[in-house]
């Protein structure tokens, strides 16, 4: 059966394909994948719709200034704040489940090229997370706008910056998941990685906020959650980076942790 | 073939493997013996590149494990049957592993058949008994039809039927010319399975010899029961044996093998009711070996240099 296969070659980029297939099968065949992805969609769509409904129900009591200041796109995408918990957990589990079950040792006897293994895991996760998150963001956007349309407060996908914001929500969720995956590779523990991820995303902003001005906003802008807000907000906000700046800040954060993860997985005993 | 040269692994708190040099030959079942904590598992992890050696090297099929593009065709290993995601179904688990090495799907069902798990292939691994997990781990090791197979304490958790099955499997794999490397902390188990043994203690090589040699060396006591015990005793002593009569009329003979005693009885027409190599003495040999490593190390080395 092995006659057609050259097992003598040293690992090359071409060898990534079978590892991607293997990791896709592994991701598909654990139940936590389905649950976290369902939770991602439900949170994104559900919260966006609820917040839009709340806005509409209070619409007649709002002042003109309040009505003008709302960002209908951002309101409908607000569920991302909850959904990032679900997709972050999935990113963590992609690798932490290997360590906590010991499966990593079986995996590495099939794929000893560790960097390739990590890239394959990250690659498969990125595709799945981006597709699901982006679909969730679009559903949330359209659901939210259809609610807001009741008070003529909706925007169209073709309005300036709107499509970018909806896509930005999908990209943000994907990158938070990747950050979880990289942290879990470093920490090799599910609970520790989840705690660290949400410490970075949710707790750190509260701490930075306590810094004296202008440090609080200057540093705060760079944090993942504010970089994300810059990506899925349409109305300009002086406390946030530009959408492109937000993307770069988040990519740098994820990139740095990912590089550390590559170094760790290559150097440590498994 | 597995070749270790000066293999050493030092952890911050302990020297787990200390300058091990050995070769595991194809066509044989090689037992890897040592008490718990002797460094057997660490050595196997070093072979698979899971741990990085502090010094020395180990190759499988002539190259480092990590340098094989599709290692499952080269080496099949079962280190820990529990090292598995319990949420996956057995067939899915094997299919995920198979895909990483371009192993065809049909092979997954083949190995499930070989280990007798076809009926439960659709069940989640979390519901499996330890014995079933062992079988699943062996199925995974066989996926690539590899020339080298390595098992860490594979008998643990198997029922008697499973133990017989696994011995037969090892024998069949070795007879096909494969390298079969099996660790155990039980000398008696190995005496039934292995052709050759490598014994380590505290990370150091203690013995590397054919099983037969260790059995002769270790089986210092043979229990003999005979209605002609009184006549047989002087014959045994003349043949160079030391004989201790037991209270129940049996004789405990040392320094003679059961083969020699049996031949002696036949030659002199002595009726034997029992001729048993004391299996407990195997464990004692092993105990002696691993406790008294320096002495035996020299002895075995001498034995091996003889033609």
Question: Topology of this structure?
Answer:
The complex is a heterodimer of chains A (270) and B (307).
Chain A: H1 16-28, H2 31-57, H3 64-69, H4 72-76, H5 80-101, H6 103-110, H7 114-148, H8 162-187, H9 190-208, H10 215-220, H11 224-232, H12 243-267
Helix pairs in contact in A: 1-7, 2-5, 2-7, 5-6, 5-7, 5-8, 5-9, 7-8, 8-9, 8-11, 8-12, 11-12
Chain B: E1 2-10, E2 15-24, E3 29-33, H1 40-47, E4 55-60, E5 75-78, H2 90-100, H3 105-114, H4 130-142, E6 148-152, H5 160-175, E7 179-184, H6 187-193, E8 196-201, E9 204-210, H7 211-218, E10 221-225, H8 229-238, E11 242-245, E12 251-254, H9 258-267, E13 274-277, H10 279-291, H11 293-305
Parallel strand pairs in B: 3-7, 3-8, 5-6, 6-7
Antiparallel strand pairs in B: 1-2, 1-4, 8-9, 10-12, 10-13, 11-12
Helix pairs in contact in B: 2-3, 3-4, 7-10, 10-11
Features:
heterodimer; A: mainly alpha; 0% strand; B: 307 residues; alpha/beta; 6-stranded mixed beta sheet; 4-stranded antiparallel beta sheet; 24% strand; disordered C terminus
At a glance:
The complex is a heterodimer of chains A (270) and B (307). Chain A contains twelve helices and no strands.
Verbal overview:
The complex is a heterodimer of chains A (270) and B (307). With 270 residues, chain A is mainly alpha-helical. Helix content of chain A is 74%, strand content 0%. Chain A has 12 helices and no strands. In chain A, 46% of the residues are buried. Mean pLDDT of chain A is 92; it is low at 1-11. Chain B is an alpha/beta fold. Helices cover 39% and strands 24% of the residues of chain B. Chain B is built from 11 helices and 13 strands. Chain B has helices spanning 40-47, 90-100, 105-114, 130-142, 160-175, 187-193, 211-218, 229-238, 258-267, 279-291, 293-305, and strands at 2-10, 15-24, 29-33, 55-60, 75-78, 148-152, 179-184, 196-201, 204-210, 221-225, 242-245, 251-254, 274-277. In chain B, helix 2 (90-100) crosses helix 3 (105-114) and helix 7 (211-218) crosses helix 10 (279-291). The two termini of chain B are 22 Å apart. Classes of the chains: A mainly alpha (270), B alpha/beta (307). At the A-B interface, helix 1, helix 5 and helix 6 of A face helix 2 of B.
């Amino acid at each position: 059966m092995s006659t057609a296969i050259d097992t003598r070659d040293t690992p090359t980029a071409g060898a990534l394909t079978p590892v991607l297939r293997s990791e896709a099968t592994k991701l598909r065949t654990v139940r936590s994948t389905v649950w976290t992805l369902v939770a991602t969609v439900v949170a994104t769509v559900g919260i966006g719709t609820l917040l839009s409904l709340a806005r509409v129900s209070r619409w007649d009591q709002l002042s003109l200034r309040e009505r003008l200041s709302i960002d209908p796109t951002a309101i409908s995408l607000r569920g991302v704040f909850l959904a990032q918990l679900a997709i972050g957990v999935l990113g963590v589990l992609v690798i932490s489940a290997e360590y906590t079950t010991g499966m990593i040792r079986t995996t590495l006897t099939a794929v000893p090229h560790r960097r390739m293994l990590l890239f394959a895991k990250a690659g498969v996760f990125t595709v799945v997370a981006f597709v699901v998150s982006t679909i969730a963001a679009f559903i949330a956007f359209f659901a939210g706008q259809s609610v807001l349309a009741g008070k003529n407060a909706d925007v169209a996908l073709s309005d300036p910056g709107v499509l970018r914001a909806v896509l930005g929500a999908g990209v943000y969720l994907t990158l938070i998941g990747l950050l979880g995956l990289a942290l879990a590779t470093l920490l090799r523990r599910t609970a520790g990685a989840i705690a660290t991820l949400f410490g970075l995303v949710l707790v750190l902003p509260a701490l930075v906020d306590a810094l004296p001005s202008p440090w609080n906003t200057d540093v705060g802008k760079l944090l993942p959650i504010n970089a994300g807000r810059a990506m899925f907000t349409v109305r300009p906000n002086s406390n946030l980076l530009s959408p492109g700046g937000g993307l770069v800040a988040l990519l740098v954060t994820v990139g740095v942790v990912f590089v550390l993860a590559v170094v760790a997985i290559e150097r440590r005993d498994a | 073939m597995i070749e270790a040269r000066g293999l050493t692994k030092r952890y911050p708190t302990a020297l787990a493997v200390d300058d091990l040099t050995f070769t595991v030959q194809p066509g044989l079942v090689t037992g890897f013996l040592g008490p718990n904590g002797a460094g057997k598992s660490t050595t196997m992890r070093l072979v698979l590149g899971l741990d990085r050696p502090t010094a020395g090297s180990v190759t499988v099929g002539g190259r480092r494990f990590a340098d094989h593009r599709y290692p499952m065709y080269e080496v099949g290993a079962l280190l820990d049957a529990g090292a598995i995601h319990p949420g996956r179904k057995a067939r899915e688990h094997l299919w995920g592993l198979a895909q990483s090495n371009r192993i065809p799907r049909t092979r997954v069902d083949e190995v499930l058949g070989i280990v007798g798990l076809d009926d439960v292939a659709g069940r989640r691994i979390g519901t499996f008994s330890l014995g079933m997990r062992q079988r699943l781990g062996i199925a995974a090791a066989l996926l690539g039809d590899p020339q080298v197979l390595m098992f860490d304490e594979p008998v643990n958790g198997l029922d008697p039927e499973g133990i017989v099955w696994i011995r037969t499997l090892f024998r069949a794999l070795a007879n096909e010319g494969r390298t079969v490397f099996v660790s155990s902390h039980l000398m008696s188990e190995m005496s039934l399975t292995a052709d050759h043994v490598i014994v380590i203690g505290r990370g150091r090589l203690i013995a590397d010899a054919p099983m037969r040699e260790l059995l002769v060396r270790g089986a210092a006591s043979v229990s003999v029961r005979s209605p002609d015990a009184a006549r047989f005793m002087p014959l045994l002593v003349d043949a160079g044996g030391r004989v201790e009569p037991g209270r129940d009329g049996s004789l405990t003979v040392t320094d003679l093998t059961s083969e020699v005693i049996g031949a002696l009885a036949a030659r002199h027409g002595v009726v034997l009711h029992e001729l048993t190599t004391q299996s407990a003495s195997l464990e004692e040999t092993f105990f002696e070996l691993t406790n008294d490593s320096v002495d035996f190390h020299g002895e075995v080395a001498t034995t091996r240099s003889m033609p």
